[in-house]
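Section handout 9: paired folding examples.
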Amino acid sequence: IATAEIGFALLLIAVVSTAAVLYIRYRLRHCRCSGSDARSSKDSVFTKDNGKIRPDLDELQKRRRARVFTYEELEKAAQGFKEESIVGKGSFSCVYKGVLRDGTTVAVKKAIMSSDKQKNSNEFRTELDLLSRLNHAHLLSLLGYCEEGGERLLVYEFM
């Protein structure tokens, strides 16, 4: 019976120790505060828009080096968004193969817009913010975007 009690005590110590280590690692990764819990407004990549928080595209561009493309530039790169340039199609977008003026081959994701323009804009900005933060060897890099004349396009490296 004494052996079982010792085993249980060791198991309990191991579980508590593991939980403590995981908690400390979580706090170190997610707490980027330097003496203050509040982030300054100039550090934020979000702005208020009619009471709603949305990504500040100018700030994202500076931080993530996401290039802003013109619609005309991407239209030329993707050969006028012709059917022959399509490399993928989903329920919310078409992906076109394109070549930029500097010779870079890119994938241009052109959103299929719904009738709710405000919703389109919010979804686009949220997606842009999330994609600009991702950096992984198995994911394509976001090179830039275009939000012009009601069009929403994302530009990725072509694989």
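Moving on to protein 2 of 2.
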Amino acid sequence: MYNTQLETFITVADLGSFNKAAEALYISAPAVTKQINLLERAKKAMQEKDQVLRIGTSPMTPAQPIVTAWSQAQEKIPGLKLQLIPFMNSQENAREILKNLGTNIDVVAGIFDDTMLRLRQCSGLELSRQPICCAVAAGHRLAGKERLTIQDLYGENLLMMHRGWSNYVDELRDDIWKNHPQINVVDFDIYTVDIFNRCENSNDVLMVVENWRDVHPLLKVISVDWNYAIPFGILYSSEPSELVKKFLKALQEVC
């Protein structure tokens, strides 16, 4: 495709002068200057676009942890801008977004392990270990407690992600099945707003992580006296762009 500004730039570079380029192109010197300025503005716009990191955000994958971590490292990439891309959690969305990170969304914050990364065909940078907690409705018998023992869960339906989703969750599941059969484990397929609503409406107990305390206003997240946690961090493409690589490197240096 023919580009007038690009031809003008090449002519200026070859002849070493705006005036000589104007003569060769049969246009005025101010016209040459104008075209070079247009090219510079286009170049700047492209560079600024390339410095935008797109963060996927949903109720279960809030962007705040990434933004908080970035606030400690932003001086390392001073021109970087963050753009939030909202999406709805669903089985299909989770599969497509994580498999195609780098296309419309560059990074997502979330819980993960090696099993989940292989399943979703992406990579992860761990920022923290999130304690596995329980969420209950405001009217639940356990809602008045500030901390639970595993015996507090006896007689309850405990909603947990299905086996094979995470080794960390499966370890907890195996412990419950082997040592605490008084707890009824109920599987579900994916964390969505619907599963949080189910917890609130059914009076069941939902397995969550600590930094989901603000996901649902009608649920209370309570810590439990067990030593189970799961990695939390940034999910990104297995073939990240140069900008994503720089972003991750900057975070690793401060986190």
